[in-house]
Write a structure and sequence with these properties.
179 residues
Length: 179
């Protein structure tokens, strides 16, 4: 709880207007600490709660840059996706979902490293990563299909979009064959 309050304090604009940068600087100066990712996560989630989506995205991107092996990284990438989508930045949200399933899905280095780790919550985090990354890929699949169908309905050639959809289906079957 104290860690969360430290993170929240960096979002107080009467204290600092560059909370994410100041937190990053502080964490880099004190070295590798287990609570570092939680502080950055608290900053991002606080910005999400007060509807400062761009600042939340910036905080989560910094978290992932600083702690690429963070056990909750897929959930942080999903926070980026959700914020981009809420801002109406659909193409960026699509790309962030692609990054999510490529970086944290079952075929990724991150996922494989977690599978062989001795982390106490390993299985819970593996399951969460699997579910979040599968949902991201499935959402992109549905968007591609919907785009293709809309193009057909408008009288434009939807074939290229259907081809994108088919390629993404192959990726889905390669990564999530059990589903």
């Amino acid at each position: 709880e104290a860690i969360e309050y430290v993170g929240i304090s960096f979002t107080d604009e009467s204290y600092t207007t560059r909370g994410v940068d100041k937190a990053r600087e502080m964490l880099m100066n004190i070295g590798d600490r287990p609570y570092g990712p939680e502080i950055m996560q608290a900053i991002g989630q606080t910005y999400q709660k007060i509807d400062e989506k761009d600042k939340a995205i910036y905080a989560f991107e910094n978290l992932l840059d600083m702690y690429p092996r963070y056990r909750k990284a897929p959930a942080m990438q999903k926070e980026i996706v959700d914020a981009l989508y809420a801002l109406g930045r659909d193409k960026e949200a699509y790309d962030a979902r692609t990054k999510l399933y490529q970086t944290y899905g079952p075929k990724s280095e991150w996922y494989k490293d977690l599978e062989i780790s001795d982390e106490k919550d390993r299985l819970t985090n593996i399951e969460a990563a699997y579910n979040i990354s599968e949902q991201a890929l499935r959402t992109n699949l549905l968007i591609d299909l919907q785009d293709a169908q809309e193009m057909d309905a408008e009288g434009t050639d939807g074939k290229p979009k259907y081809e994108d959809f088919a390629k993404l289906c192959e990726i889905y079957l390669d990564i999530f064959a059990a589903d």
